[in-house]
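Translate sequence into structure tokens.
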Amino acid sequence: MNADTNTCSLGTDSQYVELAVEVFAMLADATRVRIILALRDGEMAVGALADVVGKSPAAVSQHLAKMRLARMVSTRQEGTRVLYRLENEHARQLVADAIFQAEHALGGEPAHHRVPAHTADRSAS
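Result follows.
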């Protein structure tokens, strides 16, 4: 048995590098990033997503179709409504990390590095 087949390949020669580039290309759109942020807490219908991201339902539907083909989102039928959800936690994490990196680009102490006051109070006890 080959133990290497059970590990994630993060080497420079990984067979997944080109696919990773496609994932980044899919996320290189502000509307898609906003859709992922909106879906991080659960399922939403197209109309609700359109309201949250500030785009028309038709535009959001087109983005969701591409994201579905890329297996970033999946659907569930509820009566006549189609609900969208993130396929897994990785797209959510990629977007969160990209936003954290953007905070670093502004200089100073990024918000994600600040310890909330209630957490600091507990650790002082």
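Note: Helices lie at 17-26, 30-39, 46-53, 57-69, 89-105, 117-124.
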